[in-house]
C-alpha cells in the first residue's frame, strides 16, 4: 500500500468534489458486510464464489486458495455482470454470493463495492485478504517457485549439436 505523505510534504489542492482514496475506501466498506478469513472459508464451502482478483504474478509469488476463481481486477465487472455477453457461467443472476480476495484486503473492498454497483447484492470481501487467509491457517496452494535450471540438466547451447 502506498505511503501517506508526511505533514512536511506538500500535497496538491484537490479539485472541488473530489474524494481521497481513504474516503472512497471507507464508503465502499460501509456498504459491505466484510468477512474474516474463517467466515469467508465457510461461505465458500457453502457455495459462495471465492474470487481471487490478484494479478497472476502475485498469485504465483504468494500462493492461491484451492477452488477460488482467478479473475483479475481489470475484467471483474465484465465477468460478473449478468447482462454482459462476456460474463462467466457462474454469473447467473444478481443474488450470487461473491467473496472477493486480494492480497491484503484493500483492493477487494473497492472491487466488491463495484459488484454491488452492478446489482450483485451479496458481493463482499475478505478482511486482510490472502495474507490473513494464510495466517489463519486456511487451505492454500503454493507459492509456485520460479523455474530454475536443474543442476543436472546440461545448458542449452546455440549452434550445432556436438557429435
TrEMBL record:
UniProt-annotated stretches for the region Disordered: 143-163
InterPro entries: Rhodanese-like_dom (IPR001763), Rhodanese-like_dom_sf (IPR036873)
Keyword Transferase listed: yes
Biased composition (Pro residues): 143-154
Keyword Hydrolase: no
Stored Pfam families: Rhodanese
Record protein name field: Rhodanese-related sulfurtransferase
Amino acid at each position: 500500500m502506498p505511503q501517506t505523505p508526511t505533514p512536511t510534504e506538500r500535497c496538491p489542492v484537490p479539485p472541488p468534489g473530489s474524494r481521497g482514496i481513504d474516503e472512497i475506501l471507507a464508503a465502499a466498506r460501509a456498504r459491505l458486510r466484510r468477512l474474516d478469513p474463517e467466515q469467508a472459508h465457510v461461505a465458500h464451502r457453502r457455495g459462495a464464489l471465492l474470487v481471487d482478483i490478484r494479478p497472476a504474478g502475485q498469485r504465483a509469488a504468494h500462493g492461491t486458495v484451492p477452488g477460488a476463481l482467478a479473475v483479475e481486477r481489470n475484467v471483474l465487472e465484465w465477468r460478473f455482470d449478468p447482462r454482459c455477453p462476456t460474463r462467466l457461467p457462474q454469473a447467473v443472476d444478481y443474488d450470487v454470493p461473491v467473496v472477493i480476495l486480494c492480497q491484503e484486503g484493500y483492493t477487494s473492498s473497492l472491487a466488491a463495492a463495484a459488484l454491488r454497483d452492478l446489482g450483485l447484492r451479496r458481493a463482499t470481501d475478505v478482511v486482510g485478504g490472502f495474507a490473513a487467509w494464510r495466517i489463519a491457517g486456511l487451505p492454500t496452494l503454493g507459492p509456485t517457485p520460479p523455474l530454475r535450471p536443474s543442476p543436472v540438466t546440461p545448458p542449452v547451447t546455440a549452434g550445432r549439436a556436438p557429435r
